[in-house]
Amino acid sequence: MGIHHYFKSLSDFEKIIRCPGKFKFQEHSVASHSFKVTKIAQFLGTVEEQGGEKVDWRLLYEKALNHDYAELFTGDIKTPVKYASKELKRLFSEVEEEMTKKFIEKEFPPEFRDVYLERFKEGKDETLEGRILAVADKIDLLYESFGEIQKENPESLFLEIYEEALSTILLFKDMVCVKYFLENILPDMLLERFIEQSELAVITEKMINESGGNL
Amino acid sequence: MGIHHYFKSLSDFEKIIRCPGKFKFQEHSVASHSFKVTKIAQFLGTVEEQGGEKVDWRLLYEKALNHDYAELFTGDIKTPVKYASKELKRLFSEVEEEMTKKFIEKEFPPEFRDVYLERFKEGKDETLEGRILAVADKIDLLYESFGEIQKENPESLFLEIYEEALSTILLFKDMVCVKYFLENILPDMLLERFIEQSELAVITEKMINESGGNL
Amino acid sequence: MGIHHYFKSLSDFEKIIRCPGKFKFQEHSVASHSFKVTKIAQFLGTVEEQGGEKVDWRLLYEKALNHDYAELFTGDIKTPVKYASKELKRLFSEVEEEMTKKFIEKEFPPEFRDVYLERFKEGKDETLEGRILAVADKIDLLYESFGEIQKENPESLFLEIYEEALSTILLFKDMVCVKYFLENILPDMLLERFIEQSELAVITEKMINESGGNL
Amino acid sequence: MGIHHYFKSLSDFEKIIRCPGKFKFQEHSVASHSFKVTKIAQFLGTVEEQGGEKVDWRLLYEKALNHDYAELFTGDIKTPVKYASKELKRLFSEVEEEMTKKFIEKEFPPEFRDVYLERFKEGKDETLEGRILAVADKIDLLYESFGEIQKENPESLFLEIYEEALSTILLFKDMVCVKYFLENILPDMLLERFIEQSELAVITEKMINESGGNL
Amino acid sequence: MGIHHYFKSLSDFEKIIRCPGKFKFQEHSVASHSFKVTKIAQFLGTVEEQGGEKVDWRLLYEKALNHDYAELFTGDIKTPVKYASKELKRLFSEVEEEMTKKFIEKEFPPEFRDVYLERFKEGKDETLEGRILAVADKIDLLYESFGEIQKENPESLFLEIYEEALSTILLFKDMVCVKYFLENILPDMLLERFIEQSELAVITEKMINESGGNL
Amino acid sequence: MGIHHYFKSLSDFEKIIRCPGKFKFQEHSVASHSFKVTKIAQFLGTVEEQGGEKVDWRLLYEKALNHDYAELFTGDIKTPVKYASKELKRLFSEVEEEMTKKFIEKEFPPEFRDVYLERFKEGKDETLEGRILAVADKIDLLYESFGEIQKENPESLFLEIYEEALSTILLFKDMVCVKYFLENILPDMLLERFIEQSELAVITEKMINESGGNL
């Protein structure tokens, strides 16, 4: 029993790679993903707050930070498997809960158990904070898939992921923060330009000419 | 539909890393594992044959080569999850079968479907070939965990894996090839020696002296 | 200008490797480190709260999550350089502040600037939350160096880092959470045992004997 | 002497990287390559069998599985060197054979030597199985080079490899399985489409509109 | 004290990655960079010599080989930080000098100190050799950024680096070797062509036709 | 034809990994190796010079920098193969020479051909500079193998490499610089101590006690 094992296990999240079994130009760990989701949730919460909503910040941070905790026990199971049937999904959630509970009982002294049971619960509920988490999680996924598409990853899977992430975000399109995202952030992502090698010749010639030389 | 997608998917096995979520000095892909299991099964089959058993080589190779094919669809699910309950295990097997069937129907022309349905079935049955596969699979796992222990990986998980692999092999201890493994191969593994840094000083001094110099 | 650039920059933290220029068995990014520090701060805050302190959770999470934000602009400057002289340290801090300010003015719309200027400030102040951050930051560093020592990294640097991290933690030894760490967590870390290869022979023999065979 | 050394050496194939000395987006080990070649040979054999040929499956699997075994002793020598002169090629083959023989005599007990000498022989002979191996080896090479070209690797070497692989496959164009490959598999490979970043804007707008919003 | 520590520290240069904190398709260490800069300087020196200049080769090699030595102590500080203010730059250079001096005094026996103090000095002075080094350093940087642009790295940073490197080279446009570079080498770099996937279909069809078959 | 291709090929040396086909904790490229050999040769040359020898520095740097150039064409052929027979070794050398010559004729304009033919020649001749190169090459190999042994690499190959490197160095034991190495550098390498995990408990307790606390 011991918090030492809990602290040590944090490093395991650096070793769970998201979207296994596919070539990716840039890999992302669950640790990095959790960091980015929490940062994105922080921004979305700020937008909600400026839009007049009351944000429970402690709750929001707890949900974002811990939202993939169960992957420590289950690994990264491919989504189509996880959701193959309602029965499997239900059983699966039960197993996750059971394993989380056992871990907490094994490693946490009694005085911390209740608070950690609460923290490691599924966070995507109907509260404002649960909905912000659901959106933040998909925004990071959108950026991950965009990063691969932008680097010209030929796997069509990444377009499917992009679409799946966007369609989930759109389910929350009545939220102030989602409106902000759709109106102010997504368009900039789509406008990102590429450097074409052909530009290099133009730029180079211009620079050489300006320096008084010629190519 | 197309065999092209099947051929292309073979490369995905190079991207499924075994035992995710734990620090390892040397990582192994499912592609590499399948290669090694098939080579080990080849040797075990040879021992069985010399021991008087009749080996169906075509079947043995098919089983070994394809034994982790379903991981293409499911990813690498942690064992404790997979076997958390009989019901979950049964459902998982159903999902795997279903997904394999769908993949074959989508990608393989009709004339190849039956043969590939057969090839992608769970191979660890009660036949001699199924039992050789079960042993070969665990021998490679034993070598993987031994490799980490020998490199001084401090994770106790690898000792648990070593024990789990060995105990499964021992279930088949009446097989000729398992006897051979326990008597002729495992002892050499356990006798592997380390190079201690302290030896270096001794060796170095000896070499310098023999060359006529002195340290 | 745009929050898109802010969101995209989060991925750069996955590419800043801590402690560059030294061989490490396991590398850690600033993104992973930030995740772990926030999780550790969460636990330390819980201990403080149970010890009767009033924790401002929003502030604690903000400090932990953003504490290395300036590395986006400066990269990972080696500590001895950063602290080579008071004058250099002061100038560096000014440069960091200046760059952070410029980034916020360039990328954040006016309505978010104040809140992000506050969030990206140096977080290790005299508040309870600032002190928890200082401790959490060093606990993760302690675990990083412990991980290398445990894997037998021959670089003496990691012992120096271990000592430096511990001595900083000890500066806060009057805090409830530091007492908890020293009494309940650190001893478990130090008791971690190694698996010796020699144990394998004993375990293996025992298992084979119990299975009714012999080696 | 010992099969343990043979089993342990299998892991070295995971550490021989194909096509060294060139930037590649995705690296492939000899272990992975051998796995894929065996799987491809399995499919090609099935096509031949359905085309009325008699396939010796045991032989085919042995050839495919072991076809790069000599690289354990020689490493990955660049093809232009290997084939620089007939004399060098001949000497080289002799050295490979000699080293394989020595390894077998050193590590294999007498009762296994003959079977392994046979297994580790050059497999690309005039038999049906030898020709299937020759084709399967080049199909995997074709996929490796296609993968780099598709990911926009600017090295023209990969186009040369693509052409070299295809021209070797074409030498066997009278085989049923090569016809099948040229008619049913290669065209699908060439039709693979890219996702263009510009498509993203279209898809995104469509999805947002369909959800009742607008960008 | 000891040259052993100096020899051992050489390996640390393999662990300092250039341009940290950004996604790169191909990473370069300071060790590799130093090797390439020295090779490029060797060529530029040859051009200067053929152009009638007197090259002090010993000095040129010393400058090129050691030009990034101080990064051992400072790590890779981002350029905008390093040059944020004149005062910081000055202080920074002082710190580098101080640390280099301390290292030499600690690790080198007295008889080698003067020669190494000289060798580890800032090499980019007004001498011919100092100017060749300045150009060679930027040519390697130009190739690094070109490599990323050619592989379609979407980070605009690499275009900025390309421009910054070229503009520095142009400062030396009166040197014989820079003229040679601008007239004979840079144009070939800009003419590098890409292999387009669409070409593959054409090439493939042509090859199949020529072999007497058809696609 | 073009120096651009020569400059671009320098990056290929970053992709040739030394000692392929074996698990290594730390991999080294030919680019890094060449850098380190040149730095070591620089030091050895300094020792020779202080010992009264006349060093041709230009020649020494050229030899060290270019000594593995032919690996660009041949890749990293395993030593036992390369030296399997005198005839093979002779043929290999001829092929290397031929390929180097062809490369120079293809890529270098006529005015640079002679100087580069000279530079890319086998450098380990009987001159002082050739002998310094031979020693420097083996000292870096000694450090590479020492690094693996010190990190507890269980492959006995690295002890063999250590011995092979040392025995070659000892062939030159009459050189001033080898004497210096054996007397002043090697002993420090052998005295390198390990940090034992058990030390941590002692250090930690001491630090806590000194801070006024207790564990």
UniProtKB/TrEMBL annotation, chains A, B, C, D, E, F:
Q: What InterPro entries does this protein's entry cite?
A: HD/PDEase_dom
- Read off the Pfam families from this record: YfbR-like
Q: Which domain of life is it from?
A: Bacteria
Q: HD/PDEase domain: from which residue to which, for each copy?
A: 26-151
Signal sequence: where?
A: none
Tell me the protein's name. Answer: HD domain-containing protein
Species assigned in the record: Lederbergia citrea
